[in-house]
Amino acid sequence: MLSKYHWHFSKKISESQAYETLKEAGEDYSPAFLSICFNRGLHSIEAIKKATDQEPTLYHDPFKLYQMDKAVERIHRAIEKEEKILIYGDYDADGITSTLILKEALDTLGADSQVYLPNRFTDGYGPNVDRYQTFIDQGIQLIVTVDNGVAGHEAIQVAQDKGVDVIVTDHHELQATLPVAYAIIHPRHPKGDYPFGDLSGAGVAFKVATAILDEIPVEMLDLVAIGTVADMVSLLDENRTLVIGGIKQLKVTDRPGLQLLFKENLQSIDDLSAETIGFLIGPRLNAVGRLGDPRPGFDWLAALTKEEASNLLDFIESENRQRQELVSQIFEEVSDRINSSQDIPSIICQASTTWHPGVLGIVASRICDLYQRPCLLFFYDEEKHQYRGSARSKETFNLFENLSQIKQYLLHFGGHSQAAGMTIEEDSWEDFQKQLQLLAEKEQDSIKTKPSLNIDASLAVSDISLQLIEEIQSLGPFGMHNPKPVILFEDLTMTDKRLIGTNKQHVKLQFEANASKDSLAAIAFSMADNLQDCQVGNRLNVVGELSINEWKKQKECQLIVKDIAVDGVWWIDYRGKSQLEKLQKLSQVVYCFQDEKHAKSFSNGLDSNHQIMLYEEIDQKLEYEDLVLMEPPKNLDQLRTLLKVQTWQKIYLVSIVVESRYLAGLPQREEFAKLYRFLLEKKQIQLKDFQDISNYLVIPLIKIKTMIVVFFEAGFVTIKDGLVIMNMIEQANKHDLMQLPAMQKYQQAMEAERVLNFQTIDQVKSWINEEI
Questions:
Q1: CB 476 within 8 A of CB 375
Q2: CATH 1.10.3470 describes domain 665-753
Q3: Which residues contact 327 (CB under 8 A, 6 or more apart)?
Q4: Please, what is the average pLDDT of the chain?
Q5: Which of 40, 113, 168, 768 could form a disulfide with 106 if both were Cys (CB 3.0 to 4.6 A apart)?
Q6: Across-strand partners of 380?
Q7: 437-470 pLDDT, tens per residue?
Q8: Region 698-717: what's the mean pLDDT?
Q9: Residue ranges covered by each domain of the chain
Q10: Are 320 and 290 in contact (CB under 8 A)?
Q11: Under CATH, what is the fold of the domain 341-448?
Q12: Three-state DSSP class for 578?
């Protein structure tokens, strides 16, 4: 329970396999690292050495790319004839870097070239007919696309018809028919036999540069690494060589823009890695393209002086901050809309006239991740009467396939299983939403299924060392098709929890292994909401990625948490805490009370979907799977029935007691005698005076109330019109007061209170496990 993912375990290796490998490896590898390697499919020392080689030299022959020879001949001819060449790029990090790679290669050969990076809002993606026409009118004689073109049929046809050749270099999905270009350079061209099909746009541009220069331009590998990592393509095969080489080049880069960025954001250049590209460089390049003109990103990378680079970096940082603010603002607005609705929809679909369309994909991804639902977000263009949107999905729901079923309502549509973009005319909007709802109803199982998380190894905390983490890092660079190893640690106790970060969105954690008492430091990024119910003392299973945390030259092993789970029901201890506001904001829960008046009072403050029930009412399966025990039951049989009625995922133990029977204790015979003598003396008392009587007799109020009921059951008193009246009783009329129903109920309530309120949460769970 609690886990966000379905944990998928790799096939475990046998002890004999591990032993043989250990013998063959000598002392070069730790047993824990070999276990990880085996589970990742590296079943020989040769395979392990290849996967950990940090000096790879795998460069495939660029002329194995279909029509490369034709493209190179045409480019050289254009250079010789001093033709004007246009490099037509794209507005993301991969498009920007691939444009600069080809520009620098052509500059080396003395070509007359210029670049154009389209604006996503005015030009759209890929070849644009009007833009091509403008450049042709200006005298362009050869167009070379980078990171786009395989879907640009119309614009390319226009150029070719006017005698302007177009060479397409691209890596995106190939359609059934290809444009009629002079040449198409694509690693998965159906007529080619290039041995690796997962190059990025920058990778393809690099192969073109290699071919026209007739040598590998190592100085451009920094750009290739940025484009490859930022575009999230496979980091295996040739891409591994390109990225490792690119990271080394980045560490010694002479590009002023990158030097400034690293100086301001890295403690040491040795810290630079693929993660640096993914979190530091890529987002900044993408930010300018998301918000408008991507050209400043290109100029920043191409800048030759620190002054020019500094001014451009200031602008890029400003754009990136604006992008972050827009994302946060829209994310909060969408979250508020969802949380204020009665139910979280199976497919989240929201629109606004104020949202910036350039960042909707990022927001949709975060919303999808938080609520584990496919998410479609739209900007409504009031001038064009169109909805322009971005969508993201979890792996269990194929976005592209499902939206393809209702594409008749989409003016423009494209994407893949987890991401898509689309435009919808206003007249089709309502019909689209209705069809989307029908899709959601049909795909309930796939939407509710947890996405999978592959676990590479189950280790003990005692296995963790700096050596092991360094061994793991040798499997990098990490990314698509080569993720960081995910490790499982079972039966840990949380010993510390602290919220950190500007908005307290991250969680710093400390765990202790229950078997060995070894400790493990951990951090969970952007998981404050997910882990708000995790408490110190909880016993948990934790999965994550191992890393080295360095502070003041001290190195510490650290786990980057990916997911947390508990075996069985997840009990959350809210006893004795001021959590009323938080409790009232819980969604899709069953609140259980003993007292009907308390239940009605509590329900007045609720603003989310829920059920409120009394213990005595629950005898069949309920709508929700999270339970809040607001009060202890009247007896433990009621609790047994409640816990058996269905499988609960979370149980919040609140157990509010207005008057504690357990603390008051069981009424004693001398207390009965004391109250009896008082009643004989007074003849009658008023119910409203019970508190005064309690104070006078020094007997807890809850006992006074109970003993009066016991006297009533024994026939000693009559209760009428707010009065307790003493009866005249024959001396022979004796009762065992302790066996009367009110005393039995008191004892049963006392025991229920003891179990739920006066035991540790682990003792409560142990009692439940024994009883049910």
A1: no
A2: no
A3: 359, 362, 363, 366
A4: 91
A5: 113
A6: 387
A7: 999 889 888 888 888 899 999 999 999 999 999 9
A8: 95
A9: 6-12+456-565, 62-318, 341-448, 570-656, 665-753
A10: no
A11: Diaminopimelate Epimerase; Chain A, domain 1 (3.10.310)
A12: coil
- How many Cα atoms occupy the beta-carbon half-sphere of 338 within 13 Å? 25
Q: How would CATH label the architecture of 6-12+456-565?
A: Beta Barrel (2.40)
**Judging by beta carbons within 10 Å of its beta carbon (0-12, 13-18, 19+), is residue 614 exposed, middle or buried?**
middle
Q: Which residue has the higher pLDDT, 771 or 759?
A: 759
As a whole number of Å, the end-to-end CA separation of the chain is: 18
Round to whole Å and give the CA distance between 231 and 577.
47
- In which residue are the tokens 């541009």 written? 205
pLDDT grade, residue 732 (50/70/90)? Answer: very low
The dihedral sign for the CA sequence 391, 198, 293, 324: positive
Report residue 350's pLDDT band, with 50, 70 and 90 as the boundaries.
very high
Asked: is 62-318 a CATH 3.90.10.10 domain? The reply is no
Each residue's pLDDT tens digit, 557-600: 999 999 998 877 888 888 887 777 778 878 789 999 999 999 99
Q: State pTM to two decimals.
A: 0.82
What is the DSSP secondary structure assignment for residue 479, as one 8-state letter? B
Which class for 59: exposed (0-12), middle (13-18), buried (19 or more C-beta within 10 A)?
middle
Q: What is the DSSP letter of 521?
A: E
Q: What are phi and psi of 443, to 5 degrees?
A: -105, 30
609 burial type by CB count under 10 A (0-12 exposed, 13-18 middle, 19+ buried): middle
User: Tens digits of per-residue pLDDT, 664-702?
Assistant: 999 999 999 999 999 999 999 999 999 999 999 999 999
pLDDT at 581: 75
Return the bridge partners of 6, or none. Answer: 452
- Cβ neighbors of 623 (< 8 A, separation 6 or more) are 590, 611
Amino acid 229: pLDDT: 96
Cα 287 off chain centre by: 21
The beta strand positions in 10-74, using DSSP E, are none
Q: Would residue 526 be called left, alpha or beta, if left means φ above 0 and alpha means ψ between -120 and 50 degrees?
A: left
- Tokens representing 271 are 């810290």
Model confidence at 544, pLDDT cuts 50, 70, 90, reads very high
Both tokens of 363, joined, read 């927001």
The answer to whether 235 touches 479, Cβ cutoff 8 Å, is: yes
Whole-Å CA distances, 123 to 134, 141, 143, 734: 12, 21, 17, 97
pLDDT for residue 614 is more than 60: yes
* DSSP secondary structure letter of residue 151: T
Give dist(CA 236, CA 225) in Å, integer: 13
What are 21-51's pLDDT values in tens digits? 666 766 678 888 988 888 888 888 888 999 9
Q: Helices 282-291 & 306-340, crossing angle to 10 degrees?
A: 70
For residues 771 and 747, give the distance between their C-alpha atoms in angstroms, rounded to a whole number. Answer: 19
